[in-house]
Every structure is written in structure tokens, then in C-alpha cells.
Design a protein that fits this description.
about 350 residues; 434 Repressor (Amino-terminal Domain); 3 domains; alpha/beta; 6-stranded parallel β-sheet; Rossmann fold
């Protein structure tokens, strides 16, 4: 009985100590005293500054002590000191889309390495939801925004420019409104896909894309049409009737006296949708129909004929967008843009054995 009582007292004592430790705010000074270094050095390490000038063992010791003491930065004090919240708002089309989730992770990591946190939001290709997210993030006093805008959002771009909110557009842009922008050469990317199919003997090539005013998707279609001229066969898909429209386009492409022998699809989700329908028809890829998609996704690896696709330089896009935004936050008033090349990853779906 006495042993049990002592044990209970011991557990309660440790619990109270842990609660007290949690309530006690650990400061940079506390860490500096325990490690035996200056508070300035601790600040540099915990804020990822001048890393190349600091002894690695000392830096690791500082981080270890900070973790052990459950150090949490005083964000309010930091914000007041620098007049910043050190947060970035990121709006993507759909965080469930492999493109959006991958670019979000890269942006989050790059922002963190620069002392920033990222708040995410998905627009679901909705103009109204995008407007709400922009207002929400601005009210949360984010220092800047990185946005993949839906179509017909020129008003939102103009609003951001007028308000003076630093922002960078990724993937999609509006050339009529000069803005910070990071993306790819979509016209050339489509051309690479078509030239590859032509080099492998394909003469009648269809393209499936969304019916939209978004420049980046229309540039992909233009890249096809300019190469194929009158031989181009285009199927437009509504975002509200994707499965039905993709099926109708493929049925049209494969009917008549001259069915297509190759298909280029301008987004990863449309490619997956097309592959499902083609498979349901019993059409063999690439023997009866070659297919080239756009963007990476694990689904392309799982298909019985691994899919050839246009690969975007995701790391370059994500990191560059953060760097341009940080420049804008630092009151660099000039407009910056970066347009990257793509790579065609050739696999079984487009090459006859």
C-alpha cells in the first residue's frame, strides 16, 4: 500500500513538472545559457541565418537543446519586430491533384528554409472561392500570396496589384496584366509530345483538353494545331462533364474511315480519364493507339503500358515562385517572371516494340 502511494505521488509530481514546463515559455536566452553561447548565435541558428559561418556541431547542439526544451518562437514579438507575419498564402486549383500537392510541398519546404510558414487553400477552379480565399488570407495578414488562378480572374489580379499585396502567379497567368509569374513553355511542351509521336510513325493525332479561357491549356492545344495544321483533331472537355465529354471525344476520334492512331492529353487527370475509357473499349496501347499525357502521377506507372508524359520541372517552379515572392515582400517593385522548359519522359504507351 505504501509502495503504491509513493508511486502515485511520484507520477503526480512528474506530471506537474511536465505541465509546468509546458506553461513556462522557453526563451532564446535559456537555450543560449544551457549551450554556453550568445543569444545572437542561437537566433541565427533557429532562424536559419549565416549557416555556413556557424560551427555545425554547435548549431546541432542548439537545435537539440531547443527541441528538448520544447522551444516555440514568439511569433507575435517577431511579427512586431519585423512588421511581418512570416506567413505565405498558397492557393492551388485542387490540393488532391498530384500537380497541386507536389508543388505545394516544394513551396512549403522552400518557404520554411527562409523562415516562413505556408497556409493552403484550394480554389476548386472557382472564381468565387478564389476571391474568398484571397480576402481570407489578406485578413490573416499573410505577407504575400502564391496563386494558381482559375479562369476569368483578371479582376482578382487587378485587385491584388491595386492593394499592394505581394503575389506570384504560378502555372496560369494573364499577359494583359503584367504580374510576377512562374510557369513553363506550354506551347513548346505540346510540340515535344507531337514531334515524338510523329517520329514514331503516327500520322493522325488527336488532342483532348478542357474548353477554357486559361492561357496555359490553350497554348498546349495551339502547340498541337500549329504542327498538325488541318490534320489536327481536337476534343474539348467541360470541367462539369469530364467523363462524358472524354468518352464522346474518343468515340469520335476512333470512328470513321480514318481513326486516330495517337492521342495527346493536356492534363494528368484528363489522361487518367482517357486511359480508363480506352481500356474499357478493349483498345490496346500502344499497339492500336499511342498515348502521351501531361504531368507526373503514380497512376501512369500502374497502367499496364507505363505512360509517356510531359514532365514539368516542379522543384524549379516551386522554389522560384517563393524567391520571387520574397523579393516582392522585400519591396522590390519590379515584375519578375520565369518560364522553364519541360522534358518528355518516353515510355511504353507511345512506342511500338
Amino acid at each position: 500500500m505504501i509502495v503504491e502511494t509513493i508511486k502515485q505521488i511520484y507520477l503526480e509530481h512528474n506530471y506537474l513538472l511536465s505541465i509546468t514546463a509546458m506553461k513556462t515559455k522557453v526563451s532564446i536566452k535559456t537555450i543560449a545559457e544551457q549551450v554556453g553561447v550568445s543569444t545572437t548565435l542561437v537566433s541565427y541558428v533557429l532562424n536559419n541565418k549565416n549557416e555556413n559561418r556557424i560551427n555545425k556541431d554547435v548549431a546541432e547542439r542548439i537545435r537539440t537543446v531547443a527541441r528538448e526544451l520544447n522551444y516555440q518562437p514568439n511569433q507575435i514579438a517577431r511579427s512586431l519586430k519585423f512588421q511581418k507575419t512570416f506567413t505565405i498564402g498558397l492557393i492551388v486549383a485542387d490540393i488532391a491533384n498530384p500537380f497541386s500537392s507536389q508543388i505545394a510541398r516544394i513551396i512549403e519546404n522552400e518557404a520554411k528554409s527562409n523562415g516562413y510558414s505556408v497556409i493552403f487553400g484550394s480554389s476548386d477552379e472557382s472564381k468565387e472561392k478564389t476571391k474568398d480565399l484571397i480576402n481570407l488570407f489578406i485578413n490573416r495578414q499573410v505577407d504575400g500570396l502564391i496563386i494558381a488562378l482559375p479562369e476569368n480572374c483578371e479582376e482578382q489580379v487587378a485587385y491584388l496589384k491595386q492593394s499592394g499585396t505581394p503575389f506570384v502567379l504560378i502555372d496560369r497567368n494573364y499577359p494583359s496584366i503584367p504580374s510576377n509569374y512562374v510557369g513553363i513553355d506550354n506551347y513548346d511542351a505540346a510540340g515535344k509530345a507531337i514531334r515524338h509521336l510523329q517520329a514514331n510513325g503516327h500520322k493522325r493525332i488527336g488532342v483532348i483538353s478542357y474548353k477554357t479561357s486559361l492561357l496555359h491549356l490553350n497554348e498546349r492545344v495551339r502547340g498541337v494545331v500549329d504542327l498538325l495544321n488541318e490534320n489536327a483533331v481536337v476534343g474539348e472537355v467541360s470541367i462539369d462533364h469530364t467523363n462524358e465529354d472524354v468518352a464522346n471525344a474518343i468515340d469520335r476520334f476512333m470512328s470513321g474511315d480514318q481513326p486516330i492512331d495517337a492521342l495527346f492529353v493536356t492534363t494528368n487527370l484528363l489522361t487518367i480519364c482517357a486511359l480508363k475509357y480506352i481500356n474499357s473499349l478493349g483498345i490496346k496501347i500502344p499497339d492500336q493507339l499511342a498515348v502521351v499525357g501531361f504531368d507526373e502521377t503514380d497512376a501512369f506507372d500502374l497502367f499496364y503500358a507505363p505512360v509517356t508524359y510531359v514532365k514539368q520541372p516542379m522543384a524549379d517552379i516551386g522554389k522560384k515562385s517563393v524567391r520571387i515572392l520574397l523579393d516582392a515582400i522585400a519591396k522590390n517593385d519590379g515584375v519578375q517572371s520565369a518560364v522553364f522548359d519541360t522534358e518528355l519522359i518516353v515510355r511504353q504507351s507511345s512506342v511500338l516494340s
